[in-house]
Structure formats: structure tokens, C-alpha cells
Amino acid sequence: MLVLSRDGAWLSRLENLAERGGWPFEARAALPSPGRTPPPERALAVLDRALAGGAPAKAVSVLRALYPGVAIVLSVDASEMDYAGAAAAVSCGADEVVGKAWTDAKLSQRLAILRDRSLFSQTRISADGALKAERRAHRVHVKARGGWKEVELDAGGFALLWRLLEREGESVSRAELGQALASATGRERESATVTRRLAALKKALARWPGAVETARGGLYRLASPRRREA
């Protein structure tokens, strides 16, 4: 467990929990600098909301770039654990939000679940093998000219692609995609917004020979070349 915080009491609690669980523990009082810190052999990073400053999304992005295999948890004070606060925290790109005021039992159980989950690969590859999405790292790659090229997608675009990849070859409703988009961004979205975001996703995947197909009734389908020919 890697903990990024200046809160001494919080650091002490997490260190004790890590010791009880037999987890490696490392604490830092500042965000790591790109290119200067080697990736830690950790499955879980706990980022203090107070340390993240006014732009937690930027802090999470830095951690994602440095440690793509680590699940990122944002820890917040009790005053930030209402619905709006939790939604805003999740929308910054963290995998989960935990409250500093939680009991040791609840905190330990939740962190253990997240840590165990992060130890398993969460990568989906299209049927043709040329489109790959990595959920923990929030990265997408397309195979082109013998190599993998990264596709830049924000949290909303990634959520749409991930849902389509989960159901590749099947029709997915606009409503279901809207739910995935709302979960990723913390805001309900109108159907027109989902349509625009899907159009942007199609453009971003231009290098991939497959397609995001549109059908009547507000249905969409991710189809690899092999599936389209079937």
C-alpha cells in the first residue's frame, strides 16, 4: 500500500491496518514527480484529498501515468462524504472513495477488496485482437503497423468503450451507455450528449478496422472486422 498524505493520524491508522493484513506499506508526503520515482511494487495507492489540492483529477492522472497497475483510492474527510462530494471525487478518475471517519473494520474490509481486485488483470481485447482497453490504467491502444498506438480518451469516453467491449457483438442501449457515462463523470447525461460522445469515440478509434455501429431504436454495437463479416 502506497499512502500519499501529510495527515499523521491517518498515516498511522493505515500503517497499522497494513501491518495487520501483512501488506507492504509506504508513505509519502508529496505527489511523486514523473521520471524521478520508480514504480512501487504496490497494488493500492491511497491519495489524501487534502494533498491532491484543488485539482484532484490532475493528481490522479499523474499517478495513473506513473503507476498504471495500481488501483487509486481517494480518502476524504467526513464533510466530503455526502452524495455530491463522493460523486465529485469519483469523477476525478479514482477507482474508489473511502472516508477517513470510517471504522477500522469497515476501512480494512474495503481496502482489502480493492487491493485484491487490483491484483487481477482488468484488460479487455476486441475479437480481432487489435483494440485493447486497460481498466485500471484507463488506457486504450490500437494495433497499427505491427505496434500498439495509444488512443487518448477521457474518463467518459473510456467508460463508453469499456461497456461496449464488455458486450462486444451485442446491442447496447443508449440508456445503458448513459448510465455508464454518468457513473464515470458523476453527472446524469441527456441522450443527445451520449450520442455526441459516441461520435467522438468513433473518431478516436479511426485507426481500428472495427467499428461502433448504430442501429435503430437507440442501440449501439462494437463490432470487430471478423464479427462484421459473420
Question: Span from first to last CA?
Answer: 47 Å
Structural class: alpha/beta
Rg measurement, Å: 19 Å
Query: Order of strands across the biggest sheet?
Result: 2-1-3-4-5
Low-confidence stretches: none
Largest sheet: 5 strands, parallel
How much strand?
15-25%
Describe this structure in words.
The chain has helices at 8-21, 49-52, 56-66, 83-90, 104-118, 155-166, 174-185, 191-204, 225-229, and strands spanning 2-4, 26-28, 44-48, 71-76, 96-99, 123-125, 131-134, 139-144, 147-151, 172-173, 211-215, 219-223. The protein is an alpha/beta fold. The strands form three sheets. A five-stranded parallel sheet has the order 2-1-3-4-5, sandwiched between helices. It has a four-stranded antiparallel sheet with strand order 6-7-8-9, covered by helices on one side. A three-stranded antiparallel sheet has the order 10-12-11. It starts with a strand and ends with a helix.
Please give the structural blueprint.
Elements: E1 2-4, H1 8-21, E2 26-28, E3 44-48, H2 49-52, H3 56-66, E4 71-76, H4 83-90, E5 96-99, H5 104-118, E6 123-125, E7 131-134, E8 139-144, E9 147-151, H6 155-166, E10 172-173, H7 174-185, H8 191-204, E11 211-215, E12 219-223, H9 225-229
Parallel strand pairs: 1-2, 1-3, 3-4, 4-5
Antiparallel strand pairs: 6-7, 7-8, 8-9, 10-12, 11-12
Helix pairs in contact: 6-7, 6-8
Features:
230 residues; alpha/beta; 12 strands; 22% strand; elongated
Question: What's this, in brief?
Answer:
The model has no long low-confidence stretch (mean pLDDT 85). The protein has 9 helices and 12 strands. 41% of the residues lie in helices and 22% in strands.
